[in-house]
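Please check both lines for our workbook:

___
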Amino acid sequence: MKGNLHKKMHSLTMSFANSSIIKDHLLVDIDRLIRLKLDSWPDRVLLMEEAKKITFELTVKQLMSFDPCEWTESLRREYVLVIEGFFSVPLPILSPTYRRAIKARTKVAEALSLVVKQRRIESESGEKRKDMLGALLASDDHGGFSDEEIVDFLVALLVAGYETTSTTMTLAVKFLTETPLALAQVK
């Protein structure tokens, strides 16, 4: 994005991130999801993979108010293929990973398009939700965004924090377990 579209999206994102909506619900959602995950883990887990799942589920919750379910897990599996495509040769003929990523990006966009269409219908009938998608749809009063722009933006927001947040979570656990004094101070 560039120009006015970038300015509008940036302004909307910052106002949403600084709003009481996210402050009042984000920590509650994080706590609830982490406790749910911890209770379901076996004795041994691959922490980085679990951190990625948690990050994705929290992001989907904040963006579109979806709790973890079969639909979000299906979306996550396709999304992982999109991410793998970032680290492949961007030539569909030479790279099966890149081809899979392009197909997965299409599936993710289609799934999100259906959500946006449904939420637009709900929004027009007066039903409002306090999430990023709700904020994007409410911005229609100020010039609005097309469904395609909203879908692209949702995909971009999913990408933005996925690797960095899950890596940070994993490193925090690693360093806290290696430093008992710091862990005690955090507790």
